[in-house]
Every structure is written in C-alpha cells, then in structure tokens.
Design brief:
Number of strands: 5
Number of helices: 12
Order of helices and strands: HHHHHHHHHHEHEEHEE
Structural class: alpha+beta
C-alpha cells in the first residue's frame, strides 16, 4: 500500500489532495529559489581566486558540479507540478544537493568547514517537502561520510573535536526537524478544524432552509388540506343524495390521505423519523384498503439511513404496493427490508396473477420506470421476477451513501 503525503509517498506517484499538492509545489519552488541563492554565491567562489583557494574549489571538478547543479535545478523546477515525477525528482535533486555539499565540505576542512552551516538548511528543506522524521536520514548520513576515519581510530578520544562537531550538526538538524514537524502537525490540525467548521456551517444553513420549508408546508398546504376536510365533512352532513355523499366521502378520504402524506414527509425530514414503523404502518393500511394480507419483516443489522434514502425506500414501497393493488389481484403480499453492509434492499412479493416480463411493457403497468428513476440516485438496481399466474417479486437494492454526502437531517423536536 503506497504511503500518503507526509511519508514515503513523496517517492511514489499518487493522487494527493489539492491542498497538499499546492503546498508541496510552493515549498519546492522555495527550494529552487534557495538554490539560486547558493548558485549565486557559488559563482562568486568560482570567480574570486582567494575564495576558491579558501574553500578548495580550484579543481575543474568544482565547475562540473556547479553546472550539474544548475541543470538538475532547472529540470526540477520545470517538473515540480508533474503528477508522477514532481515529488520523486525533487527528492532525488535534494540528495544530489547533499552530494555537492559533501564534496565542498570535504575540500574545505571537513566538519570544521564553514560550508557545513548549509547542512541544517538542507535538513530543513527535506522535512518541509517530506514532513516525516525519516526525512532527516539522508542529511544525517552525510555527517559520517565527510568525517575522517582518524576521528575514531586516531589519537583523538570519543570527545575529540571531530566527534563533537558531528554530534553538534546532528543535534541542530534534529532540532530543526522537530520544530518543522511540530509546526506541520499544528498546520494539519488547523486545516482539519477549518474543514470541520465549514461542514458544520454548511449543515446549519441547509438545516435552517429545510426547517423553513417544513414550516411553510405545514402552515400553508397543511392548513389548506385541513380546511378541505372540514368543508367536506360539513357538506357530507347536508347532502341527502347517496351517490353524491359517496363522492364526498371519497374526496374527504383523499384529503385525509394527502394530509397524512404531508405529515409523513415532514417527519421524514427530522431525525425522529422511524422508517421501520412507517413501512409497517403503510403495510397495515394497504392490508385494510386492499383486503390483501401483508406482512413486513426487517433483516440484518439495522443502521441509520440518510433522510433522502429513507424517503426513497418509502416511495418505492408505496409505488410497488399501489401496483400490486391495481394489477396483481393478490391474496398475500410479503415485504422484506434487509441491511447488508453498505447495501439496503427492499423485496416485495405477492401471489397474484403475475405477468410476462419479456412482453412489451404497457403504459403505466407496474411503474417500473418510476422505480428505476428513484433507485438511480443511490446507484440502485431493480429486479422483477414474474410469470403469468405465478405472482410477482420486485427486488430493489440501494447503496448507502458515505457520511456527509447526503442532505443534513433536521434537528428533532
């Protein structure tokens, strides 16, 4: 498994987050500008004989190293934002920088060289670009390379000047790395807090808007339906004609069903909505209305579903049972809701007259198109098994969306 940014991911091509990619690019460009400053000083060293003699850069090798640094620095700058080569090339050029630094240190006095001060600077860049403790390893390995063997096997003791200098530079590198890693961790924590705050504000805005809509629906549409029911009851008491009275009764029943649907929809927008209870109640009403025995069972480990998904499942059950009542002429119907990890399935089976699934669909027959459209939002599938005089089974599977990707719930109460 490739590590993520902040570990060895810098050496492995990947797809880091945009913020992390932008941060890496900014720091890699800062490294390039720092190299330009070092190259400017290096040009002065090569041009001034006394400086060259002081740092031991009079040999032709120094010119080769100088122009090599220019070449890979420009190549690195041009490929900083490359998705595959930007990070590995930056790491490689930093290692080359250490090699050039080691050559200059060895030629100008070893660990006592004034050039050793740049060692801490390169350690800082390693940790800035690849913020993990392992990033201090390459610059630290430079210390024993440039240290002379007589530090350990000569006349000096373990407390010799050479050993002290090596420990001193290693300590400075560790201190710089620790400070940078600490600041990096604080930066990451602050970014995470800002993201969480942004999500919380977005949720609050959505919640407030949905609460406003719920109030408007309750006070506006709910009030109109209640008035319609009251007026229907009043007219029903006054009317003597049986046929007209039946029509008014049906009108009143439709209005009552509509207001129940409105209340159910408003409840679905809140966290206190119980999907299982709503499905069970609807199955009972279907049984009373159609005189068809209907059972409801829940299987699997239940979980809280997003409000939009609960509404989709309820609408699918409504659509399916309505089709059963209109077309199936069934005596028994079974409804099963099953939880299976990130999948939720609803199965409705009846023992009605069924139909030929291979035959051309009739307009409005079983409303399969409506079911498919409802399922599409949750990457769902619809399977229909039926045959003439063999009943019908509708199986719907939905994928539960990741947390935070659905519309927020309204607060309960």
């Amino acid at each position: 498994m490739p590590p993520t940014y902040g570990g060895a991911a810098a050496l492995v091509p990947g797809s880091p987050e945009p913020e992390i990619t932008e941060r890496f690019s900014d720091r890699a460009r800062a490294l390039f500008y720092a190299r330009l400053a070092f190259l400017g000083i290096g040009l002065g060293v090569l041009a001034v004989p006394s400086w060259s003699a002081f740092l031991g850069t009079t040999a032709s090798t120094a010119f080769i190293i100088y122009f090599a640094v220019i070449a890979y620095s420009v190549a690195n700058f041009l490929l900083i934002d490359h998705p595959q080569w930007g990070r590995p090339l930056t790491f490689a050029t930093l290692v080359f920088d250490l090699g050039a630094l080691g050559a200059m240190v060895s030629a100008s006095g070893g660990l006592k060289s004034p050039v050793m001060a740049a060692h801490v600077m390169f350690t800082i860049f390693f940790v800035l670009l690849f913020p993990k403790l392992w990033a201090t390893l390459p610059p630290l390995l430079l210390l024993p390379v440039v240290a002379r063997l007589d530090f350990f096997f000569g006349e000096g003791s373990p407390a010799s000047q050479g050993v002290f200098l090596m420990v001193w530079h290693a300590t400075l590198s560790f201190i710089g790395a620790y400070v940078l890693l600490y600041l990096h961790a604080r930066d990451e924590k602050r970014i995470a807090q800002l993201k969480a705050l942004g999500k919380a504000q977005e949720t609050a805005i959505i919640t407030e808007e949905r609460l406003r809509l719920a109030r408007e629906m309750h006070d506006g549409l709910g009030g109109s339906l209640s008035t319609l029911i009251i007026q229907a009851e009043y007219i029903q008491r006054m009317v003597k004609d049986p046929e007209l009275k039946t029509e008014i009764t049906e009108l009143k029943g439709q209005a009552e069903e509509a207001i129940d649907e409105l209340r159910r929809s408003l409840t679905m927008m809140r966290r206190d909505f119980d999907l299982h209870k709503a499905l069970e109640d609807y199955c009972m009403r279907f049984q009373e209305r159609s005189r068809t025995w209907c059972s409801f069972k829940v299987r699997g480990r239940t979980r809280r579903l997003p409000s939009e998904m609960q509404l989709t499942i309820f609408r699918i059950l409504q659509e399916t049972l309505t089709n059963t009542q209109k077309h199936a002429e069934a005596k028994n119907t079974e409804v099963r809701l099953k939880y299976d990890g990130d999948l939720v399935s609803l199965t409705v089976s009846d023992d009605g007259k069924g139909f030929d699934t291979k035959a051309k669909k009739k307009s409005g027959h079983y409303g399969l198109t409506n079911l498919e459209e409802r399922c599409r939002k949750f990457r769902g599938t619809v399977e229909v098994q039926s045959a003439p005089d063999a009943g019908t089974t509708v199986h719907v599977s939905l994928v539960v969306p990741a947390e935070g990707s659905h519309v927020a719930f309204l607060p309960s109460g």
